[in-house]
C-alpha cells in the first residue's frame, strides 16, 4: 500500500495533545481566537513568517484559524497546534496560557513539496526559555510515533518509512533564533537559496 503523509494523520477531532515537561501542545479551538489574534498582531513575531506582516483584523485571524479547525474531519491539509503552558492547578485547557503555534501546514501542497514543512512562532514574553526547543522536540517524538504506528498497521517498504520520518523547515538566514532552535533539535541545514532578494536556509531532520 502507498502511504502518504496525509493518511498517517489522525482526524482533527481525534488528534491527541502532545505533552512535554512544561507544555501542552494541542489542536486549535475557536476559544483561542483572542490569544492568537494578539500573537499575530506583534510585528517582531510576524516579520519572520511567510505572511511577513501582522493580521489587519480579527477577521483575518479567524480566516487563518479556519484552516486549522476541521469540524467536518475531512482529509487533513495540515497538522498544526497551539502551544500552551501546563497549569498544574487546573485540568481545563482554557486555564492554560497560549504562548505559541507549531506544526505542519499546507500538506495539500504535497507531493509538489515532497516533505512536510514545520513552522512555529512564540509570543515574545516566552522567548529564551527553551519553549520552542521543547515544543519542536515534542513534535518530533509525536511524528515518529505516528510513523511507527502506521508501520505496524500497514506494510510499508523500509525506504518509504525512512522518507516518512523526515520533516523540513525553511528559515530566513537572518533568523538566528530559529536556526538555534532547529540546531538544538538535531536539524541539519542542507541548502541556502536566494529567493526574491531574501536569503533562505532549508533544513531537515529525520524523526527516528
Ligand atoms: C524563533 C523562536 C521560535 C525561538 O523561540 P524560543 O522559545 O526563544 O527558543 P528557545 O528558548 O527554545 O531557544 C533555543 C535556542 O535558540 C537560540 N536562540 C533563541 N533565541 C535567540 C536569539 N534571540 N538570538 C540568538 N539565538 C537564539 C539559542 O541557541 C537557544 O539555545 P540556548 O538555549 O543554548 O541559548 C521565537 O524567537 C519566535 O517565535 N520568533 C518569531 C517567529 C519566528 O521566527 N518563527 C520561526 C520562523 S522560521
Automatic annotation (TrEMBL):
Enumerate the spans annotated as N-acetyltransferase domain: 22-187
A Pfam family cross-referenced in the UniProt record is Acetyltransf_3
**GO MF annotation list:** acyltransferase activity, transferring groups other than amino-acyl groups
Q: Which SUPFAM superfamilies does its entry note?
A: Acyl-CoA N-acyltransferases (Nat)
- Gene3D superfamilies documented for this protein: 3.40.630.30
What PANTHER family does the database record attribute to this sequence?
GNAT FAMILY, PUTATIVE (AFU_ORTHOLOGUE AFUA_3G00765)-RELATED-RELATED, N-ACETYLTRANSFERASE DOMAIN-CONTAINING PROTEIN
Put simply, this protein is called GNAT domain-containing protein
| Origin species | Penicillium malachiteum
